[in-house]
Amino acid sequence: MKNDHDGGQPDPETLIASWIDRLDPKHRQVFRAVRTALRKRLPTANELAYDYTTSVVIGYAPGEHGIDAVLALTGRDTGVSLYFGQGPKLPDPTGILQGSGKMVRFVELNSARRLASPEVEALIAAAIAQAKTPLPATGKGRLMVKSSSAAQRAKRTAKK
């Protein structure tokens, strides 16, 4: 996967690894395993990485805009979740989707094996099929660091 970065910044994989390392060890392991599984499942999607004060998010999108993400992997102190961009519109006969937002729903993941469960796999397939912008049929996605809490703090400090 191609990485976008400028020479003055750490390599994106190194940067993201440092963000993931802040998670609780058991959540860190799940996050990494789920990320690997999603890369295999969505090889043409771009990984859009965001570092927030209390979470790490990687969206899987056809382009460079997080709003177009089909799925998003989120790691927090409380656990790891998979978010579905069209969540309220997805068929969920077993009622595993959580949340009440207008745009997204999520499933908590205690292991990467959960992705292979028939219910979650059906949701992933439906999310891909119903994406507003389809994922590219060919090619390889890129990793793009979209936001980091450290960079945001630096910008706020510079403005003062």
User: What sort of overall outline do the alpha carbons produce when their principal axes are compared?
Assistant: globular
- SSE class: alpha/beta
Order of helical and strand elements: EHHEEEEEHEH
Helical proportion, percent range:
25-40%
Gyration radius, rounded: 16 Å
* Major beta sheet, strand line-up: 1-7-2-3-4-5-6
The whole-number mean of residue pLDDT values reads: 90
The end-to-end distance, rounded to whole angstroms, is 38 Å
Biggest β-sheet description: 7 strands, mixed
Strand content: 15-25%
Number of distinct beta strands: 7
Counting DSSP H or I runs of 4 or more residues, the number of helices is 4
Give the low-pLDDT segments. Answer: 1-5, 152-157
Tell me the number of structural domains: 1
Protein traits:
disordered N terminus; 4 helices; alpha/beta; 7 strands; 7-stranded mixed β-sheet; globular; about 30% helix; about 160 residues; about 25% strand
Description:
There is one protein chain. The chain has helices at residues 12-20, 25-41, 118-129, 149-159, and strands at residues 2-3, 46-52, 55-61, 71-76, 79-84, 105-109, 142-147. With 160 residues, the chain is α/β, with parallel strands linked by helices. The protein has one domain. The protein has a 7-stranded mixed β-sheet with strand order 1-7-2-3-4-5-6. A hairpin with a 2-residue loop joins strand 4 and strand 5. The longest helix has 17 residues, at 25-41. The model is unreliable at 1-5 and 152-157 (pLDDT under 50).
